[in-house]
Amino acid sequence: MLVQGIKSRPEYKGLDIDPHAKRHLFVLEGEGAQALIDEVGAKGRDFLAKSEILYLAAGAAPKAYDVTLSALSPDVFWQASTLQPLLFRLRACLEQARMGTRLSIAGTEGFIGQIMQVAIEYGIDYHSIHTEHRGSMARRVQCVHCKGITDNVTTSPFPCSHCGLPLLVRDHYSRRLGAFQGVNIDAEEPGTAPEPEEMFP
Amino acid sequence: MTITFRSETFRDDFTFRNSLYNIKRFPFPFDRDEYMYSVNMEPHIRGKADSVFENLIDVDEHYVAEMQDRALVLKEDPLRCQALPHMMTAQWDVLELLMEHQAQDYPEHFTLEKNGDRWRWVNRPMGIDDTFTFGDAATLPYPPMEYITRQAQGDFCIVDQRDNNLWMDAGMVTTQADWSLDFDIGMNFMEWHGPVPLAHQIGVFDRALKFLLNLQQGKPTRRLNWTMTVNPRLDTSPENYHKWGPDRTTVTPENVGDKMHLRVELQSLWRLPRSNAILFVIRCYLISLSELVTVPKWGRRLPRVLKSLPPEIADYKGLTRNRPIMIDWLAKYDDGAPTSAGIYPD
Ligand code: HEM
């Protein structure tokens, strides 16, 4: 479970597919594939004919979810090698998306955040996006000092991958940035940062 | 009254000081001997002469120096001033509000002449005399919010009202008590207040939000908030925490009186006429402990407040390290006599 009670963190309420929606766009990463597979188990296969799936295997590649997903025979199944081409394809999809298309995102929190950012850019109300957190608890963190973003942070503190300052990961999340806030932990007495502790496995 | 503006700094050599007149009008935030978060709001109406409540947009002796400090901050970090695109109408609302109040209450220093949409704004302390078309941003050297808040003391947030919530969609924030506009922009009331301890649990934010959603135009409201800052530094942003954080280790029993400053925010909230947004003004006042204890009631009360402060609040405000030194130093000003209710000196 993710830490509860962080007021600025979005709630990831689960995919909860509406079978009557005109069209579905699923953007999935790693273990997020299983979120869709579970929904098919619960709701049946009918909605798949009007679904497009964009998938990024990331760390879950050995589990071959891509095989399972494409075997579901959705209208479109497309697999990305890395995040950048996935975002490129996502923009093209949103550009052409018709009224009544439901966007659903599942995967790690950093992934969800970055897909939401693009969706919000395209004027989609974030309340209407279905999200489900699956996979690691790693956080995407913005350094409040240099503004650089570090992905997949599992410890606190951690060294900013841009300016090198040891950062404490605060429980404060910006949807606009799709990131938590990192603040220099030993600002008052430089050199006294504690050892990194695994906090977000 | 003509104000004599001080020439002083809020960084490096820290030459900021308060005059005797300014000490007496300091908005001491404690109306009793202890402190806890509450929905401490009251109508923002004119108060006593020679108090910070005399005028609703207060200009004081630090005006020019504060505007110079703001300009320095913006040069280093332009992200301290941001506005989302849908906030343009609200920006003009804010420009009008600040110009009108400053011109009306400080005619020696500011003049606003309106000729239809053609406005002339004269700011004598800063040597500005500009004529522009209200509503046409191209006729000003900066976007309207930035233009006027480079000429008004305090930080400013403009919050948009929709979906029964308030959204921080614009701001000029260069004198903040350790929070980031760049990080918080676009958040709603509960989200940007996320890091505050205790207050969510006791319902302070639920009630405050409800109250603000019903704020009426022409009936601004206000509250006081406070923290403490080592050295009279205005820019205590998280962005620069690695630069000012070490100051906290420089406090000693010998220098605490001059180094440690009570930092009070007179926050006022105004419903804006055209946009229906709310302007949140965070007017920051600094006073060193040495200046503060020249008012006996405040010298008695502050150590009592610091001693009884809940540890979560002390931590959140960054006071934990220096709280004992402050309490020890202040002890000699507390003779144990009872203090009168309210914030004003006896
Ligand atoms: C629209 C108006 C308001 C804005 C833009 C605003 C903004 C903020 C921000 C940015 C913080 C810092 C949070 C952090 O640590 O990151 C804060 C703190 C806080 N706010 Fe507000 N606020 C507003 C209205 C209010 C109201 C009406 C109340 C009334 C109860 C309130 C109570 C507090 C409290 C208690 C804190 C903690 C302050 C401390 O201990 O130093 N705020 N606010």
N-to-C SSE string of chain A, H for helix and E for strand: EHEHEHEHEEEEEEEE
**What is the end-to-end distance of chain A?**
11 Å
**Quaternary structure:** heterodimer
Q: Averaging pLDDT over every residue of chain B, what do you get?
A: 97
GO molecular function (chain A): 2 iron, 2 sulfur cluster binding; metal ion binding; oxidoreductase activity
Keywords (chain A): 2Fe-2S, Flavoprotein, Iron, Iron-sulfur, Metal-binding, Oxidoreductase
InterPro entries (chain A): DmmA-like_C (IPR048037), DmmA-like_N (IPR054582)
Protein name (chain B): DUF3445 domain-containing protein
How would you portray this structure in words?
The complex is a heterodimer of chains A (201) and B (346). Chain A has helices spanning 32-43, 65-71, 83-96, 109-121, and strands at 23-29, 51-56, 76-80, 101-107, 130-133, 139-143, 149-153, 155-156, 158-159, 166-174, 179-184, 197-198. Chain A has 201 residues and is of the alpha/beta class. Chain A folds into two domains: 23-133, Nucleotide-binding domain of ferredoxin-NADP reductase (FNR) module (Rossmann fold, 3-Layer(aba) Sandwich), CATH 3.40.50.80; 139-198. The longest helix of chain A has 14 residues, at 83-96. The relative contact order of chain A is 0.16. Chain B has 346 residues and is α+β, with helices and mostly antiparallel strands. Chain B has one domain (20-331). Chain B has helices at 20-24, 63-76, 88-105, 144-149, 181-184, 189-192, 204-213, 241-244, 256-259, 289-292, 296-308, 311-316, 323-331; strands spanning 42-43, 81-83, 110-115, 118-123, 128-133, 155-162, 165-172, 221-230, 260-271, 278-288. In chain B, helix 11 (296-308) packs antiparallel against helix 13 (323-331). At the A-B interface, strand 10 and strand 11 of A face helix 5 and helix 6 of B. Protoporphyrin IX containing FE binds next to strand 6, strand 7, helix 7, strand 8 and strand 10 of chain B. Residues 37, 39, 157, 159, 166, 168, 177, 179, 184, 192-193, 195-196, 199, 204, 208, 212, 223, 225, 227, 269, 278, 280, 313, 316-317 of chain B line the site of protoporphyrin IX containing FE (HEM).
